[in-house]
Amino acid sequence: MGKWNYWTERSYYHAELRDRAKGIKSEMEAAKQISQLIFNKAKSYNSILDAGCGTGHFILSLEKKLKNDFKYLGVDITEQHIIDATEIFKENKNFEFQLGDVRDLDVEDKSYEVSICSNTIPHIPQIGKAINELIRVTKNDVFIRMLVGDEVLITKKALSDKFDENGEPDSFMYINIYDKNYLNNIIGDKGELFIYDDEFDQDAIMKHYNEHKDIAGKNIATRIVEGNQFKGYLMLPWKIVHIKLY
Question: Rounded to whole angstroms, how far apart are CA atoms 148 and 236?
Answer without folding.
Answer: 9
